[in-house]
Design goal:
The protein has two domains: 134 residues, Rossmann fold, CATH 3.40.50; 155 residues, Dihydrodipicolinate Reductase, domain 2, CATH 3.30.360.10. 34% of the residues lie in helices and 28% in strands. It is built from ten helices and 16 strands. The strands form two sheets. Strands 7, 8, 9, 10, 11, 12, 13, 14, 15 and 16 form a ten-stranded mixed beta sheet that branches. Strands 3-2-1-4-5-6 form a six-stranded parallel beta sheet, sandwiched between helices.
Length: 343
Protein backbone atom coordinates (compact mmCIF):
# COMPACT_ATOMS: atom_id res chain seq x y z
CA UNK A 1 0.00 0.00 0.00
CA UNK A 2 1.25 3.48 -0.85
CA UNK A 3 1.95 5.82 2.10
CA UNK A 4 -0.92 8.04 3.19
CA UNK A 5 -0.37 11.67 2.26
CA UNK A 6 -0.26 14.20 5.10
CA UNK A 7 -0.60 17.97 5.45
CA UNK A 8 0.30 19.83 8.64
CA UNK A 9 -1.27 23.23 9.29
CA UNK A 10 0.89 25.27 11.66
CA UNK A 11 4.61 24.74 12.30
CA UNK A 12 4.97 25.48 16.03
CA UNK A 13 5.97 23.39 19.04
CA UNK A 14 3.37 20.62 18.82
CA UNK A 15 3.67 20.41 15.03
CA UNK A 16 7.38 19.58 15.16
CA UNK A 17 9.26 22.01 17.40
CA UNK A 18 9.34 19.89 20.55
CA UNK A 19 11.06 17.07 18.67
CA UNK A 20 13.49 19.51 17.05
CA UNK A 21 14.54 20.70 20.53
CA UNK A 22 14.64 17.36 22.33
CA UNK A 23 17.28 16.80 24.96
CA UNK A 24 20.17 14.55 23.96
CA UNK A 25 19.42 10.81 24.14
CA UNK A 26 15.69 11.41 24.58
CA UNK A 27 13.84 8.66 22.71
CA UNK A 28 10.42 10.27 23.09
CA UNK A 29 8.16 11.39 20.25
CA UNK A 30 6.32 14.59 21.09
CA UNK A 31 4.94 16.07 17.86
CA UNK A 32 2.75 15.41 14.85
CA UNK A 33 5.66 15.54 12.41
CA UNK A 34 7.77 13.32 14.65
CA UNK A 35 5.00 10.73 14.92
CA UNK A 36 4.31 10.69 11.17
CA UNK A 37 8.04 10.31 10.50
CA UNK A 38 8.26 7.38 12.94
CA UNK A 39 5.43 5.58 11.14
CA UNK A 40 6.25 3.94 7.81
CA UNK A 41 2.74 4.45 6.46
CA UNK A 42 2.74 8.24 6.01
CA UNK A 43 4.36 10.77 3.69
CA UNK A 44 4.44 14.45 4.66
CA UNK A 45 3.32 16.18 1.49
CA UNK A 46 2.45 19.78 2.50
CA UNK A 47 3.10 22.13 5.41
CA UNK A 48 1.43 25.48 6.05
CA UNK A 49 2.39 28.53 8.06
CA UNK A 50 1.60 32.20 7.59
CA UNK A 51 5.33 32.87 7.98
CA UNK A 52 7.11 31.84 4.77
CA UNK A 53 10.51 31.41 6.43
CA UNK A 54 9.08 29.22 9.20
CA UNK A 55 7.15 27.12 6.69
CA UNK A 56 10.23 26.56 4.52
CA UNK A 57 12.41 25.73 7.50
CA UNK A 58 9.85 23.21 8.74
CA UNK A 59 9.59 21.69 5.26
CA UNK A 60 13.36 21.29 5.11
CA UNK A 61 13.73 19.75 8.56
CA UNK A 62 10.88 17.29 8.14
CA UNK A 63 11.45 16.62 4.41
CA UNK A 64 7.99 17.68 3.31
CA UNK A 65 7.06 17.97 -0.37
CA UNK A 66 6.15 21.66 -0.31
CA UNK A 67 5.43 24.62 1.98
CA UNK A 68 2.50 27.00 1.51
CA UNK A 69 1.44 30.24 3.17
CA UNK A 70 -2.15 30.26 1.86
CA UNK A 71 -4.63 27.73 3.22
CA UNK A 72 -6.13 27.27 -0.21
CA UNK A 73 -2.95 25.32 -0.89
CA UNK A 74 -4.38 22.77 1.57
CA UNK A 75 -8.09 23.03 0.79
CA UNK A 76 -7.67 22.79 -3.00
CA UNK A 77 -5.55 19.64 -2.78
CA UNK A 78 -6.39 16.21 -1.40
CA UNK A 79 -4.47 14.69 1.52
CA UNK A 80 -5.38 11.49 3.30
CA UNK A 81 -4.76 13.09 6.71
CA UNK A 82 -4.55 16.73 7.79
CA UNK A 83 -3.10 17.79 11.15
CA UNK A 84 -4.25 21.10 12.64
CA UNK A 85 -1.57 22.52 14.98
CA UNK A 86 -2.54 26.20 15.14
CA UNK A 87 -3.50 28.36 18.16
CA UNK A 88 -6.57 27.21 20.11
CA UNK A 89 -8.96 29.92 18.93
CA UNK A 90 -8.38 29.03 15.24
CA UNK A 91 -9.23 25.32 15.45
CA UNK A 92 -12.95 25.59 14.74
CA UNK A 93 -12.74 27.74 11.63
CA UNK A 94 -9.88 25.75 10.08
CA UNK A 95 -11.44 22.36 10.77
CA UNK A 96 -14.79 23.58 9.46
CA UNK A 97 -13.18 24.77 6.22
CA UNK A 98 -11.38 21.42 5.82
CA UNK A 99 -14.63 19.51 6.30
CA UNK A 100 -16.55 21.78 3.91
CA UNK A 101 -13.84 21.33 1.28
CA UNK A 102 -13.86 17.55 1.78
CA UNK A 103 -10.12 17.54 1.09
CA UNK A 104 -9.07 14.60 3.30
CA UNK A 105 -10.14 11.34 4.88
CA UNK A 106 -9.15 12.19 8.47
CA UNK A 107 -8.44 15.34 10.48
CA UNK A 108 -6.12 15.19 13.51
CA UNK A 109 -6.64 18.40 15.48
CA UNK A 110 -5.01 19.66 18.65
CA UNK A 111 -7.23 20.26 21.67
CA UNK A 112 -9.54 21.99 22.20
CA UNK A 113 -11.66 21.19 19.16
CA UNK A 114 -13.68 24.39 19.65
CA UNK A 115 -14.69 26.78 22.42
CA UNK A 116 -18.46 26.70 21.86
CA UNK A 117 -20.96 23.82 22.06
CA UNK A 118 -22.75 24.94 18.88
CA UNK A 119 -19.44 24.93 16.99
CA UNK A 120 -18.74 21.32 17.97
CA UNK A 121 -22.30 20.37 16.96
CA UNK A 122 -21.61 21.85 13.53
CA UNK A 123 -18.31 19.98 13.16
CA UNK A 124 -19.90 16.68 14.20
CA UNK A 125 -22.58 17.07 11.54
CA UNK A 126 -20.13 18.10 8.83
CA UNK A 127 -17.83 15.16 9.60
CA UNK A 128 -20.76 12.76 9.33
CA UNK A 129 -21.98 14.29 6.06
CA UNK A 130 -18.50 14.24 4.48
CA UNK A 131 -17.59 10.82 5.94
CA UNK A 132 -14.37 12.27 7.40
CA UNK A 133 -12.86 11.01 10.66
CA UNK A 134 -12.38 13.86 13.13
CA UNK A 135 -9.82 12.98 15.84
CA UNK A 136 -8.83 15.31 18.71
CA UNK A 137 -5.39 14.91 20.28
CA UNK A 138 -6.00 13.67 23.82
CA UNK A 139 -3.16 11.17 23.57
CA UNK A 140 -3.46 9.77 27.10
CA UNK A 141 -6.44 7.78 25.83
CA UNK A 142 -3.98 5.94 23.56
CA UNK A 143 -1.50 5.20 26.37
CA UNK A 144 -1.56 1.60 27.75
CA UNK A 145 -1.20 2.41 31.48
CA UNK A 146 -4.06 4.90 31.32
CA UNK A 147 -6.12 2.12 29.76
CA UNK A 148 -4.96 -0.19 32.60
CA UNK A 149 -6.11 2.21 35.35
CA UNK A 150 -9.38 2.84 33.52
CA UNK A 151 -10.11 -0.88 33.43
CA UNK A 152 -9.12 -1.27 37.09
CA UNK A 153 -11.43 1.54 38.22
CA UNK A 154 -14.30 0.18 36.12
CA UNK A 155 -13.88 -3.35 37.52
CA UNK A 156 -13.54 -2.32 41.19
CA UNK A 157 -15.34 1.03 41.64
CA UNK A 158 -16.12 0.40 45.32
CA UNK A 159 -12.38 0.48 46.15
CA UNK A 160 -11.93 4.05 44.88
CA UNK A 161 -12.07 6.55 47.76
CA UNK A 162 -10.81 9.81 46.30
CA UNK A 163 -9.17 11.36 43.24
CA UNK A 164 -7.15 14.57 43.03
CA UNK A 165 -5.32 16.34 40.22
CA UNK A 166 -3.02 19.28 39.50
CA UNK A 167 -2.70 21.20 36.23
CA UNK A 168 -1.67 24.61 34.98
CA UNK A 169 -2.02 26.95 31.99
CA UNK A 170 -5.72 27.66 31.70
CA UNK A 171 -8.98 25.70 31.96
CA UNK A 172 -9.59 25.62 28.20
CA UNK A 173 -5.95 24.93 27.25
CA UNK A 174 -4.54 22.33 29.67
CA UNK A 175 -7.56 22.05 31.97
CA UNK A 176 -9.55 20.47 29.14
CA UNK A 177 -6.93 17.70 29.04
CA UNK A 178 -7.41 17.13 32.78
CA UNK A 179 -11.17 16.95 32.30
CA UNK A 180 -10.87 14.59 29.33
CA UNK A 181 -8.45 12.33 31.22
CA UNK A 182 -10.66 12.16 34.32
CA UNK A 183 -13.74 11.43 32.20
CA UNK A 184 -11.81 8.69 30.41
CA UNK A 185 -10.51 7.13 33.64
CA UNK A 186 -13.53 7.61 35.93
CA UNK A 187 -16.51 8.17 33.64
CA UNK A 188 -18.66 11.27 33.35
CA UNK A 189 -19.44 13.15 36.58
CA UNK A 190 -22.85 13.68 38.15
CA UNK A 191 -22.20 17.25 39.30
CA UNK A 192 -19.54 19.94 39.49
CA UNK A 193 -18.58 22.74 41.85
CA UNK A 194 -15.95 25.44 41.15
CA UNK A 195 -14.39 27.10 44.20
CA UNK A 196 -11.47 29.23 42.95
CA UNK A 197 -9.78 30.59 39.84
CA UNK A 198 -6.41 32.16 38.99
CA UNK A 199 -5.55 34.16 35.87
CA UNK A 200 -2.76 32.75 33.72
CA UNK A 201 -1.02 35.49 31.76
CA UNK A 202 0.69 33.13 29.33
CA UNK A 203 -2.55 31.79 27.83
CA UNK A 204 -4.71 34.81 28.79
CA UNK A 205 -7.26 32.60 30.52
CA UNK A 206 -8.32 31.51 33.99
CA UNK A 207 -7.27 28.25 35.60
CA UNK A 208 -10.23 27.08 37.69
CA UNK A 209 -10.15 24.84 40.74
CA UNK A 210 -13.15 22.54 41.02
CA UNK A 211 -14.74 19.33 42.28
CA UNK A 212 -16.27 16.62 40.09
CA UNK A 213 -18.84 14.48 41.93
CA UNK A 214 -19.21 10.75 41.30
CA UNK A 215 -21.15 8.04 43.12
CA UNK A 216 -19.03 7.16 46.15
CA UNK A 217 -16.12 9.58 45.59
CA UNK A 218 -15.08 13.01 44.35
CA UNK A 219 -12.28 14.26 42.10
CA UNK A 220 -10.76 17.53 43.31
CA UNK A 221 -8.71 19.46 40.75
CA UNK A 222 -6.35 22.31 41.66
CA UNK A 223 -3.92 24.49 39.74
CA UNK A 224 -0.33 25.54 40.40
CA UNK A 225 -0.90 28.83 38.57
CA UNK A 226 -0.57 31.90 40.76
CA UNK A 227 -1.11 35.62 40.20
CA UNK A 228 2.45 36.35 41.32
CA UNK A 229 4.02 34.05 38.67
CA UNK A 230 3.76 34.38 34.90
CA UNK A 231 5.15 30.86 34.67
CA UNK A 232 6.23 28.46 37.42
CA UNK A 233 6.57 24.92 36.05
CA UNK A 234 4.65 22.32 34.07
CA UNK A 235 2.60 19.85 36.07
CA UNK A 236 -0.07 17.33 35.17
CA UNK A 237 -0.65 14.79 37.94
CA UNK A 238 -3.58 12.60 38.98
CA UNK A 239 -3.72 10.73 42.30
CA UNK A 240 -6.06 7.79 42.98
CA UNK A 241 -6.58 6.78 46.60
CA UNK A 242 -8.04 3.28 46.85
CA UNK A 243 -8.88 1.14 49.85
CA UNK A 244 -5.68 -0.91 49.64
CA UNK A 245 -3.29 1.05 47.42
CA UNK A 246 -2.56 4.35 45.71
CA UNK A 247 -1.92 5.04 42.03
CA UNK A 248 -0.32 8.36 41.07
CA UNK A 249 0.50 9.62 37.60
CA UNK A 250 3.67 11.71 37.97
CA UNK A 251 6.25 13.39 35.70
CA UNK A 252 3.51 14.84 33.44
CA UNK A 253 2.08 11.30 33.00
CA UNK A 254 5.46 9.78 32.14
CA UNK A 255 5.42 7.65 35.29
CA UNK A 256 2.92 5.69 37.38
CA UNK A 257 3.73 5.23 41.07
CA UNK A 258 1.95 2.47 42.99
CA UNK A 259 2.01 2.66 46.79
CA UNK A 260 0.68 -0.19 48.97
CA UNK A 261 -1.22 0.04 52.24
CA UNK A 262 0.60 -1.77 55.05
CA UNK A 263 0.58 -1.94 58.84
CA UNK A 264 2.21 0.78 60.91
CA UNK A 265 4.63 0.52 63.83
CA UNK A 266 1.80 -0.57 66.14
CA UNK A 267 -1.23 -2.77 65.47
CA UNK A 268 -4.58 -1.53 64.26
CA UNK A 269 -3.24 1.27 62.04
CA UNK A 270 -2.70 1.06 58.29
CA UNK A 271 -0.77 3.67 56.28
CA UNK A 272 0.40 4.35 52.75
CA UNK A 273 3.88 2.86 52.76
CA UNK A 274 6.01 5.09 50.53
CA UNK A 275 9.10 2.98 51.24
CA UNK A 276 7.50 0.13 49.28
CA UNK A 277 6.28 2.26 46.36
CA UNK A 278 6.98 1.00 42.86
CA UNK A 279 7.55 3.28 39.88
CA UNK A 280 6.78 2.24 36.32
CA UNK A 281 7.49 4.31 33.24
CA UNK A 282 4.38 4.78 31.14
CA UNK A 283 4.25 4.93 27.36
CA UNK A 284 3.31 8.61 27.42
CA UNK A 285 6.56 9.75 25.77
CA UNK A 286 5.53 7.92 22.60
CA UNK A 287 1.74 8.05 22.98
CA UNK A 288 1.35 10.50 20.10
CA UNK A 289 2.89 7.78 17.92
CA UNK A 290 0.16 5.46 19.26
CA UNK A 291 -2.38 8.10 18.25
CA UNK A 292 -0.91 8.19 14.73
CA UNK A 293 -1.04 4.37 14.58
CA UNK A 294 -4.74 4.67 15.43
CA UNK A 295 -5.32 7.33 12.78
CA UNK A 296 -3.65 5.11 10.19
CA UNK A 297 -5.92 2.19 11.11
CA UNK A 298 -9.17 4.17 10.96
CA UNK A 299 -8.14 5.91 7.73
CA UNK A 300 -7.51 2.64 5.89
CA UNK A 301 -10.64 1.07 7.37
CA UNK A 302 -8.84 -1.37 9.66
CA UNK A 303 -10.53 0.03 12.79
CA UNK A 304 -13.64 2.05 13.63
CA UNK A 305 -13.30 5.55 15.04
CA UNK A 306 -14.14 5.31 18.76
CA UNK A 307 -11.32 7.20 20.54
CA UNK A 308 -11.00 11.00 20.85
CA UNK A 309 -14.16 11.63 18.88
CA UNK A 310 -15.75 15.08 18.54
CA UNK A 311 -18.54 13.75 20.75
CA UNK A 312 -16.08 13.38 23.66
CA UNK A 313 -14.92 16.96 23.03
CA UNK A 314 -18.58 18.04 23.26
CA UNK A 315 -18.77 16.36 26.67
CA UNK A 316 -15.54 18.04 27.79
CA UNK A 317 -16.87 21.45 26.86
CA UNK A 318 -20.11 20.74 28.70
CA UNK A 319 -18.06 20.17 31.88
CA UNK A 320 -16.05 23.35 31.26
CA UNK A 321 -19.24 25.38 30.84
CA UNK A 322 -20.63 23.97 34.10
CA UNK A 323 -17.39 24.82 35.92
CA UNK A 324 -17.43 28.45 34.80
CA UNK A 325 -21.16 28.78 35.51
CA UNK A 326 -20.73 27.29 38.99
CA UNK A 327 -18.07 29.88 39.80
CA UNK A 328 -20.15 32.74 38.41
CA UNK A 329 -23.08 31.64 40.59
CA UNK A 330 -20.91 31.86 43.68
CA UNK A 331 -19.54 28.31 43.89
CA UNK A 332 -22.89 26.63 43.30
CA UNK A 333 -23.03 22.85 42.88
CA UNK A 334 -24.47 22.15 39.43
CA UNK A 335 -25.85 18.74 38.40
CA UNK A 336 -25.68 17.18 34.95
CA UNK A 337 -28.93 15.95 33.45
CA UNK A 338 -29.38 12.24 32.94
CA UNK A 339 -28.66 11.14 29.37
CA UNK A 340 -27.03 14.43 28.37
CA UNK A 341 -23.65 12.95 27.46
CA UNK A 342 -22.87 12.34 23.79
CA UNK A 343 -21.66 8.83 22.93
Amino acid sequence: MSPLSVAIIGTGHIAGGYDEKKLDNDAGIYTHAGAYAAHTGFELKTVFDVDRERAENFRRIWKAGCAVTDLTGIYDEFHDVISVCTPDHTHFSIVRDILVAGCCRAVFVEKPLATDIAQIEELIQLAIERNIHLVVNFQRRNEPMHQEIRNFVASQPSKLLSVSGHYMKGLRHIGVTMIDTLCYLCGYPEAVLAFNRVFNEEVNDYSYEFVLYYTGFTAVVKTTDADRFRYNYHIFEIDFLLSERRFTYVDISQGLKETPVTGYAYSGVNVMNERESQYRETGYKTSIKDAIDYIYDITIGKATHEINTPQSSWNNLLVINQITESFERGSAKLHFEQGIWKK
